[in-house]
Amino acid sequence: MSRSKRKLDHIRHALNRDEIAVNSFDEMEIVHQSLTDIHWDYISLQTQLGELSLSSPLFVNAMTGGGGEKTEVINRDLAIAAKETGIALAVGSQMSAINDAQEKRSYQIVREENPNGVIFANIGSEATVDQALQAVHMIEANALQIHLNVLQELIMPEGDRDFSDRLQRIESIVKHIDVPVIVKEVGYGMSMETARQLREVGISYFDVAGYGGTNFSKVENKRRKQPFRAFDQWGIPTAISIAEVKASVPECHVIASGGMRNGLDGAKAFVLGAEAFGMAGHLLRTLMKEDVETLIDEINHIHHEFKIAMMLLGVTEPVSLKGKPHIYAGRMKAWLDQRL
Ligand code: FNR
Protein backbone atom coordinates (compact mmCIF):
# COMPACT_ATOMS: atom_id res chain seq x y z
CA MET A 1 0.00 0.00 0.00
CA SER A 2 1.32 3.47 -0.90
CA ARG A 3 2.21 5.90 1.87
CA SER A 4 -0.38 8.45 0.60
CA LYS A 5 -3.16 5.88 0.66
CA ARG A 6 -2.15 4.89 4.19
CA LYS A 7 -2.32 8.51 5.36
CA LEU A 8 -5.82 8.93 3.96
CA ASP A 9 -6.81 5.65 5.62
CA HIS A 10 -5.54 7.00 8.95
CA ILE A 11 -7.67 10.11 8.61
CA ARG A 12 -10.73 8.04 7.69
CA HIS A 13 -10.31 5.65 10.61
CA ALA A 14 -9.50 8.46 13.07
CA LEU A 15 -12.69 10.21 11.99
CA ASN A 16 -14.81 7.13 12.42
CA ARG A 17 -14.28 6.85 16.14
CA ASP A 18 -16.72 8.27 18.65
CA GLU A 19 -15.84 11.36 20.64
CA ILE A 20 -13.86 10.45 23.74
CA ALA A 21 -16.25 10.00 26.65
CA VAL A 22 -14.02 8.89 29.54
CA ASN A 23 -10.28 9.15 30.08
CA SER A 24 -7.63 9.49 32.77
CA PHE A 25 -8.43 13.15 33.39
CA ASP A 26 -11.73 12.00 34.88
CA GLU A 27 -9.75 10.31 37.65
CA MET A 28 -8.26 13.64 38.65
CA GLU A 29 -10.18 16.50 40.24
CA ILE A 30 -9.00 20.03 40.84
CA VAL A 31 -10.26 21.14 44.26
CA HIS A 32 -12.76 23.96 43.87
CA GLN A 33 -11.91 27.25 45.56
CA SER A 34 -14.72 29.70 46.34
CA LEU A 35 -12.70 32.88 46.43
CA THR A 36 -10.77 34.35 43.54
CA ASP A 37 -9.13 37.74 43.53
CA ILE A 38 -8.50 38.44 39.88
CA HIS A 39 -10.28 40.25 37.06
CA TRP A 40 -11.13 38.26 33.91
CA ASP A 41 -9.39 40.88 31.75
CA TYR A 42 -6.04 40.20 33.42
CA ILE A 43 -6.06 36.54 32.50
CA SER A 44 -3.50 35.83 29.79
CA LEU A 45 -3.05 32.65 27.79
CA GLN A 46 0.54 33.59 26.92
CA THR A 47 2.64 30.50 27.49
CA GLN A 48 6.37 29.94 27.66
CA LEU A 49 7.31 26.43 26.56
CA GLY A 50 11.06 26.40 27.15
CA GLU A 51 12.50 28.53 24.37
CA LEU A 52 9.16 28.83 22.58
CA SER A 53 6.87 31.79 23.25
CA LEU A 54 3.29 30.76 22.51
CA SER A 55 0.18 32.92 22.63
CA SER A 56 -1.83 29.94 23.83
CA PRO A 57 -1.14 26.74 25.79
CA LEU A 58 -3.06 24.80 23.10
CA PHE A 59 -1.64 23.62 19.79
CA VAL A 60 -2.76 21.44 16.89
CA ASN A 61 -0.77 18.23 17.15
CA ALA A 62 0.83 16.39 14.22
CA MET A 63 -1.55 14.77 11.79
CA THR A 64 -1.15 14.98 8.12
CA GLY A 65 0.52 15.97 4.88
CA GLY A 66 1.90 14.08 1.95
CA GLY A 67 -1.37 12.45 0.87
CA GLY A 68 -1.87 14.67 -2.19
CA GLU A 69 -4.55 17.31 -2.65
CA LYS A 70 -6.80 16.07 0.14
CA THR A 71 -4.19 16.47 2.84
CA GLU A 72 -3.13 19.81 1.37
CA VAL A 73 -6.68 21.14 1.87
CA ILE A 74 -6.81 19.76 5.43
CA ASN A 75 -3.45 21.30 6.28
CA ARG A 76 -4.46 24.63 4.76
CA ASP A 77 -7.62 24.71 6.88
CA LEU A 78 -5.77 23.70 10.05
CA ALA A 79 -3.25 26.48 9.36
CA ILE A 80 -6.03 29.04 8.83
CA ALA A 81 -7.66 28.05 12.12
CA ALA A 82 -4.29 28.13 13.91
CA LYS A 83 -3.55 31.59 12.54
CA GLU A 84 -6.99 32.99 13.40
CA THR A 85 -6.79 31.74 16.98
CA GLY A 86 -3.05 32.33 17.49
CA ILE A 87 -2.19 28.73 18.31
CA ALA A 88 0.84 26.70 17.23
CA LEU A 89 0.54 23.80 14.82
CA ALA A 90 2.53 20.67 14.12
CA VAL A 91 2.47 19.15 10.64
CA GLY A 92 2.27 15.39 10.14
CA SER A 93 5.32 13.26 9.41
CA GLN A 94 7.38 14.81 6.63
CA MET A 95 9.29 11.62 5.82
CA SER A 96 7.29 11.18 2.59
CA ALA A 97 8.08 14.72 1.39
CA ILE A 98 11.75 14.24 2.19
CA ASN A 99 11.74 11.24 -0.14
CA ASP A 100 9.47 12.76 -2.80
CA ALA A 101 9.72 16.50 -3.56
CA GLN A 102 6.20 16.56 -5.08
CA GLU A 103 4.75 15.95 -1.64
CA LYS A 104 6.32 19.07 -0.11
CA ARG A 105 3.45 21.30 -1.16
CA SER A 106 0.96 19.85 1.34
CA TYR A 107 3.33 20.84 4.17
CA GLN A 108 4.57 24.17 2.85
CA ILE A 109 0.97 25.42 2.54
CA VAL A 110 0.97 25.62 6.34
CA ARG A 111 3.82 28.14 6.36
CA GLU A 112 2.31 30.04 3.40
CA GLU A 113 -1.02 30.42 5.22
CA ASN A 114 0.59 31.36 8.49
CA PRO A 115 3.92 33.08 7.77
CA ASN A 116 4.46 34.32 11.34
CA GLY A 117 2.94 31.40 13.24
CA VAL A 118 4.70 28.88 15.44
CA ILE A 119 4.98 25.67 13.42
CA PHE A 120 6.52 22.33 14.41
CA ALA A 121 8.14 20.03 11.87
CA ASN A 122 7.65 16.26 12.31
CA ILE A 123 9.79 13.23 11.49
CA GLY A 124 10.09 9.61 12.60
CA SER A 125 12.90 8.39 14.83
CA GLU A 126 14.41 6.59 11.83
CA ALA A 127 15.38 9.98 10.34
CA THR A 128 18.97 11.02 9.82
CA VAL A 129 20.39 14.41 10.79
CA ASP A 130 20.20 15.48 7.16
CA GLN A 131 16.51 14.51 6.94
CA ALA A 132 15.78 16.36 10.19
CA LEU A 133 17.42 19.50 8.78
CA GLN A 134 15.38 19.16 5.58
CA ALA A 135 12.13 18.84 7.54
CA VAL A 136 12.85 22.00 9.55
CA HIS A 137 13.98 23.92 6.49
CA MET A 138 10.96 22.80 4.38
CA ILE A 139 8.51 24.76 6.52
CA GLU A 140 10.88 27.13 8.38
CA ALA A 141 9.86 25.34 11.53
CA ASN A 142 10.20 26.84 15.00
CA ALA A 143 10.66 23.39 16.58
CA LEU A 144 11.06 19.78 15.49
CA GLN A 145 8.97 16.86 16.71
CA ILE A 146 10.42 13.36 16.51
CA HIS A 147 7.73 10.72 16.93
CA LEU A 148 8.11 7.31 18.56
CA ASN A 149 5.53 4.79 17.37
CA VAL A 150 6.94 1.30 17.89
CA LEU A 151 3.62 -0.47 18.51
CA GLN A 152 1.96 1.23 15.54
CA GLU A 153 4.79 0.04 13.28
CA LEU A 154 4.54 -3.50 14.65
CA ILE A 155 0.81 -3.72 13.96
CA MET A 156 1.22 -2.25 10.46
CA PRO A 157 1.94 -5.11 8.05
CA GLU A 158 4.36 -2.89 6.14
CA GLY A 159 5.76 -1.24 9.31
CA ASP A 160 9.38 -1.00 10.49
CA ARG A 161 10.88 -3.90 12.42
CA ASP A 162 14.37 -2.62 13.18
CA PHE A 163 14.58 -0.02 15.96
CA SER A 164 18.11 -0.83 17.03
CA ASP A 165 19.73 2.59 16.56
CA ARG A 166 16.86 4.98 17.33
CA LEU A 167 18.27 6.56 20.49
CA GLN A 168 21.61 7.26 18.78
CA ARG A 169 19.78 8.86 15.85
CA ILE A 170 17.80 11.10 18.21
CA GLU A 171 21.03 12.02 19.97
CA SER A 172 22.74 13.12 16.76
CA ILE A 173 19.69 15.07 15.62
CA VAL A 174 19.42 17.03 18.86
CA LYS A 175 23.14 17.86 18.61
CA HIS A 176 22.81 19.29 15.11
CA ILE A 177 19.45 21.08 15.13
CA ASP A 178 19.24 24.62 16.43
CA VAL A 179 15.48 24.71 17.13
CA PRO A 180 13.94 22.92 20.14
CA VAL A 181 13.60 19.15 19.59
CA ILE A 182 10.44 17.62 21.04
CA VAL A 183 10.22 13.84 21.29
CA LYS A 184 6.62 12.68 21.16
CA GLU A 185 4.63 9.50 21.36
CA VAL A 186 1.59 8.92 19.16
CA GLY A 187 -1.02 7.81 21.71
CA TYR A 188 0.71 5.21 23.90
CA GLY A 189 2.16 7.60 26.49
CA MET A 190 5.71 8.02 27.77
CA SER A 191 7.13 6.36 30.86
CA MET A 192 9.61 7.77 33.36
CA GLU A 193 12.23 5.31 32.08
CA THR A 194 11.82 6.48 28.47
CA ALA A 195 11.98 10.12 29.55
CA ARG A 196 15.19 9.48 31.47
CA GLN A 197 16.82 7.68 28.52
CA LEU A 198 15.89 10.56 26.23
CA ARG A 199 17.13 13.10 28.78
CA GLU A 200 20.50 11.34 28.81
CA VAL A 201 20.91 11.96 25.08
CA GLY A 202 20.01 15.63 25.40
CA ILE A 203 16.23 15.86 25.00
CA SER A 204 14.44 18.41 27.19
CA TYR A 205 10.99 18.58 25.53
CA PHE A 206 8.63 15.62 25.92
CA ASP A 207 5.14 15.29 24.44
CA VAL A 208 3.61 12.35 26.30
CA ALA A 209 0.85 11.72 23.67
CA GLY A 210 -0.77 9.26 26.04
CA TYR A 211 -3.45 6.63 25.85
CA GLY A 212 -7.08 7.78 25.87
CA GLY A 213 -7.59 9.41 22.51
CA THR A 214 -6.57 8.45 19.00
CA ASN A 215 -5.61 4.79 19.20
CA PHE A 216 -3.28 3.61 16.46
CA SER A 217 -3.59 -0.02 17.55
CA LYS A 218 -7.28 0.15 16.68
CA VAL A 219 -6.63 2.19 13.54
CA GLU A 220 -4.02 -0.23 12.22
CA ASN A 221 -6.04 -3.26 13.30
CA LYS A 222 -8.86 -2.08 11.05
CA ARG A 223 -6.46 -2.43 8.14
CA ARG A 224 -5.46 -6.02 9.02
CA LYS A 225 -7.21 -9.27 8.09
CA GLN A 226 -6.16 -10.79 11.41
CA PRO A 227 -6.10 -7.93 13.96
CA PHE A 228 -3.95 -7.82 17.11
CA ARG A 229 -6.86 -6.89 19.36
CA ALA A 230 -4.88 -7.81 22.50
CA PHE A 231 -3.05 -4.50 22.10
CA ASP A 232 -6.11 -2.29 21.75
CA GLN A 233 -5.80 -1.18 25.39
CA TRP A 234 -1.99 -0.90 25.48
CA GLY A 235 -0.48 2.36 26.66
CA ILE A 236 -0.03 4.80 29.55
CA PRO A 237 -3.05 7.06 30.08
CA THR A 238 -2.22 10.70 29.41
CA ALA A 239 -2.69 12.20 32.90
CA ILE A 240 -0.61 9.38 34.41
CA SER A 241 2.09 9.81 31.80
CA ILE A 242 2.42 13.53 32.52
CA ALA A 243 2.89 12.75 36.22
CA GLU A 244 5.50 10.05 35.42
CA VAL A 245 7.56 12.18 33.05
CA LYS A 246 7.40 15.28 35.23
CA ALA A 247 8.57 13.21 38.24
CA SER A 248 11.48 11.68 36.34
CA VAL A 249 12.78 14.81 34.55
CA PRO A 250 11.37 17.69 36.63
CA GLU A 251 13.64 20.29 35.03
CA CYS A 252 12.29 19.51 31.53
CA HIS A 253 9.34 20.73 29.49
CA VAL A 254 6.38 18.38 29.41
CA ILE A 255 3.64 18.67 26.81
CA ALA A 256 0.27 16.99 27.39
CA SER A 257 -1.54 15.26 24.56
CA GLY A 258 -3.52 12.13 23.83
CA GLY A 259 -7.29 12.34 24.18
CA MET A 260 -7.42 15.95 25.40
CA ARG A 261 -11.13 16.82 25.14
CA ASN A 262 -11.49 20.38 26.37
CA GLY A 263 -9.89 23.31 28.17
CA LEU A 264 -10.45 21.73 31.57
CA ASP A 265 -8.38 18.67 30.58
CA GLY A 266 -5.75 21.21 29.51
CA ALA A 267 -5.88 22.99 32.87
CA LYS A 268 -5.59 19.67 34.73
CA ALA A 269 -2.51 18.86 32.65
CA PHE A 270 -0.98 22.18 33.72
CA VAL A 271 -1.77 21.39 37.38
CA LEU A 272 0.28 18.20 36.88
CA GLY A 273 3.17 20.25 35.47
CA ALA A 274 2.59 20.31 31.71
CA GLU A 275 3.58 23.51 29.90
CA ALA A 276 1.41 23.14 26.77
CA PHE A 277 -1.29 20.79 25.51
CA GLY A 278 -1.90 19.40 22.06
CA MET A 279 -5.03 18.11 20.38
CA ALA A 280 -5.13 16.10 17.17
CA GLY A 281 -8.16 13.83 16.63
CA HIS A 282 -10.77 16.11 18.20
CA LEU A 283 -9.75 19.11 16.07
CA LEU A 284 -9.54 17.03 12.88
CA ARG A 285 -13.02 15.60 13.49
CA THR A 286 -14.41 19.08 14.11
CA LEU A 287 -12.91 20.31 10.85
CA MET A 288 -13.94 17.33 8.73
CA LYS A 289 -17.47 17.00 10.11
CA GLU A 290 -18.10 20.77 10.03
CA ASP A 291 -15.85 23.46 8.55
CA VAL A 292 -12.98 25.80 9.35
CA GLU A 293 -15.27 28.40 11.00
CA THR A 294 -16.60 25.76 13.39
CA LEU A 295 -13.03 24.70 14.14
CA ILE A 296 -12.12 28.31 14.98
CA ASP A 297 -15.18 28.55 17.27
CA GLU A 298 -14.18 25.29 18.96
CA ILE A 299 -10.60 26.47 19.61
CA ASN A 300 -11.95 29.74 21.06
CA HIS A 301 -14.31 27.73 23.23
CA ILE A 302 -11.44 25.58 24.53
CA HIS A 303 -9.54 28.80 25.34
CA HIS A 304 -12.57 30.07 27.21
CA GLU A 305 -12.81 26.84 29.24
CA PHE A 306 -9.12 27.06 30.10
CA LYS A 307 -9.60 30.65 31.28
CA ILE A 308 -12.57 29.69 33.48
CA ALA A 309 -10.33 27.15 35.22
CA MET A 310 -7.63 29.82 35.62
CA MET A 311 -10.17 32.25 37.08
CA LEU A 312 -11.45 29.61 39.53
CA LEU A 313 -7.91 28.95 40.72
CA GLY A 314 -6.99 32.63 40.87
CA VAL A 315 -4.13 32.59 38.36
CA THR A 316 -3.44 35.06 35.57
CA GLU A 317 -0.94 32.96 33.62
CA PRO A 318 -1.18 29.26 32.70
CA VAL A 319 2.14 28.28 34.30
CA SER A 320 0.81 29.30 37.73
CA LEU A 321 -1.70 26.42 37.59
CA LYS A 322 1.13 24.02 38.43
CA GLY A 323 0.63 22.18 41.70
CA LYS A 324 -2.78 23.72 42.53
CA PRO A 325 -4.71 21.53 45.02
CA HIS A 326 -5.99 18.36 43.37
CA ILE A 327 -6.74 14.74 44.11
CA TYR A 328 -6.62 11.59 42.04
CA ALA A 329 -8.49 8.35 42.39
CA GLY A 330 -9.02 4.92 40.85
CA ARG A 331 -6.50 3.58 38.39
CA MET A 332 -4.50 6.81 38.40
CA LYS A 333 -4.01 6.62 42.19
CA ALA A 334 -3.14 2.91 42.05
CA TRP A 335 -0.64 3.55 39.26
CA LEU A 336 1.06 6.56 40.83
CA ASP A 337 1.20 4.93 44.29
CA GLN A 338 3.26 2.13 42.75
CA ARG A 339 5.37 4.20 40.41
CA LEU A 340 6.24 7.52 42.07
C1 FNR B 1 -1.66 11.41 13.98
N1 FNR B 1 -0.54 11.47 14.83
C2 FNR B 1 0.71 11.67 14.28
N2 FNR B 1 1.79 11.94 15.09
C3 FNR B 1 3.00 12.19 14.56
O1 FNR B 1 3.92 12.47 15.31
N3 FNR B 1 3.19 12.15 13.20
C4 FNR B 1 2.18 11.90 12.33
O2 FNR B 1 2.37 11.90 11.13
C5 FNR B 1 0.88 11.64 12.88
N4 FNR B 1 -0.19 11.35 12.05
C6 FNR B 1 -1.46 11.31 12.57
C7 FNR B 1 -2.56 11.23 11.72
C8 FNR B 1 -3.85 11.27 12.22
C9 FNR B 1 -5.01 11.22 11.29
C10 FNR B 1 -4.05 11.39 13.64
C11 FNR B 1 -5.44 11.48 14.22
C12 FNR B 1 -2.97 11.44 14.48
C13 FNR B 1 -0.67 11.37 16.30
C14 FNR B 1 -1.06 12.68 16.96
O3 FNR B 1 -0.11 13.68 16.78
C15 FNR B 1 -1.29 12.48 18.47
O4 FNR B 1 -0.09 12.14 19.09
C16 FNR B 1 -2.31 11.39 18.77
O5 FNR B 1 -3.32 11.43 17.81
C17 FNR B 1 -2.93 11.53 20.12
O6 FNR B 1 -3.65 12.75 20.22
P1 FNR B 1 -5.25 12.86 20.06
O7 FNR B 1 -5.59 12.53 18.65
O8 FNR B 1 -5.84 11.85 20.99
O9 FNR B 1 -5.58 14.28 20.41
Overview of the molecule:
This protein is an alpha/beta fold and 340 residues long. It has a single domain, classed as Aldolase class I (TIM Barrel, Alpha-Beta Barrel). Helix content is 43%, strand content 13%. The strands form 3 sheets. An 8-stranded parallel barrel has the order 4-5-6-7-8-9-10-11, surrounded by 6 helices. Helix 8 links the parallel strand 8 and strand 9. The protein is globular. The site of ligand FNR has 27 residues, from helix 1, strand 7 and helix 12.
Structural class: alpha/beta
This entry's quaternary arrangement is single chain
So what's the overall shape?
A: globular
How many discrete domains? Answer: 1
Please give the number of β-strands. Answer: 12
pLDDT < 50 stretches:
none
Terminal CA distance reads: 43 Å
**Name of the level-1 CATH class:** Alpha Beta
Work out the helix count. Answer: 14
**What strand order characterises the main sheet?**
4-5-6-7-8-9-10-11
EC number: 5.3.3.2
Function: Involved in the biosynthesis of isoprenoids. Catalyzes the 1,3-allylic rearrangement of the homoallylic substrate isopentenyl (IPP) to its allylic isomer, dimethylallyl diphosphate (DMAPP).
Subunit structure: Homooctamer. Dimer of tetramers.
Keywords: Cytoplasm, Flavoprotein, FMN, Isomerase, Isoprene biosynthesis, Magnesium, Metal-binding, NADP
Could you give a quick summary of the protein structure above?
The protein is α/β, with parallel strands linked by helices. It has 14 helices and twelve strands. The chain has helices at 3-15, 69-85, 95-99, 105-113, 129-138, 150-155, 166-176, 192-200, 216-221, 238-248, 263-271, 281-289, 292-312, 330-339, and strands at 28-30, 47-49, 52-54, 58-60, 88-90, 119-124, 143-147, 181-184, 205-207, 253-256, 276-279, 326-328.
